[in-house]
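Closing statement on the zinc ion sub-project.
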Amino acid sequence: MGLVLGIESSCDDLAAAVVRDGSQILASVVHNQDLIHARYGGVVPELASRDHVRHVHATVERALHESGSQIDDLDGIGVTSGPGLIGSLLVGLCFAKALAYRAGKPLVGVHHIEGHLASARLGPEPLACPFLGLVVSGGHTALYRIETLARIELLGQTRDDAAGEAFDKVAKRLGLGYPGGREIDRIAREGRREAIQFPRPLTGDPGLDFSFSGLKTAVALEVDRRESEGGLAPGDVADIAASFQEAVVDVLVQKTRRAVDSTRLSRVAVVGGLAANRRLRERMETFARERELEIRFPEPRLCTDNAAMIAAVADRMLSEGARGSFGLEAFSRIPLGRIAGAED
Ligand code: KG4
Ligand code: ZN
């Protein structure tokens, strides 16, 4: 399509990026709020949207400046319109609408998960379609068949907590820092993965759905038990983190294997915040080697929320003629391919 500005504000990260032709990242800026939410051990929606309001203008300006482009150079604007926190989404959406209106540029609303899936196709060697996409983030855990980026089929998803949510809650229970996923990844390297045999939920189930809430509870009960028996001994936290992480990774690898068997796809992308996890990358790479699959993980800065992935989807939508109206809405939950207003 050309030069597209992406804006992402669905949760606690505020991001803007300028991408050329859907794959070449000219600038990708992320303003994160870790310090704001750290003391609460989780995202506080009201604080997230207020901080977005404070920084949205400067973040977009910085992305334009770093890319060496002006608003007038843009061929279009893409903004995340769901799923996510409504207050957070509205900030990016209102800003994008105002900018599109003032500059006379086409605007499209982008589905956040489509963005994560498209992150596998950013960079010099985009993963070819069709591929199997495992989305593992703070809000989502799901497997998709990506026939083309416009034809995506949901194969299975979590019935309760997302994998990242379980990482964050376990980290909080273990008294680790925030955001928890990264901390578990770090401390697990010092622990024994086989120290505790935590459950691997739904791995006996023939389907492709996930469940992580029981695993999270099993970890909490183990911590309670050890605390009531005199407290956590040195090394316990690392052992629990490593054993928990291994259980999650086992589930993700087993379900991916099952999905490869049933779809017969030979390419796999692992995307979303957890795709940055070292143990998951290691185990998935081994699996891919055994089965001679082509596997792709986005570079770490593109695993977590960013706007380059949003611009990449917007580029495709715009080139297919999609145009969002100024009535484009924010959606806290919305199935893939159903962003209203994108087609009028
Ligand atoms: O994709 P993302 O930025 O946001 C959502 O769309 O949800 O994912 C954030 C999630 C958080 O739960 C965070 O703890 C987790 O990804 N995360 C990790 C790692 N880095 C981020 N989890 C495990 N290991 C990591 N290295
Ligand atoms: Zn995300």
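Residues 129-297 form a domain with the Nucleotidyltransferase; domain 5 fold (CATH 3.30.420.40). With this model delivered, the sub-project is considered complete and its resources will be redirected to Aim 3.
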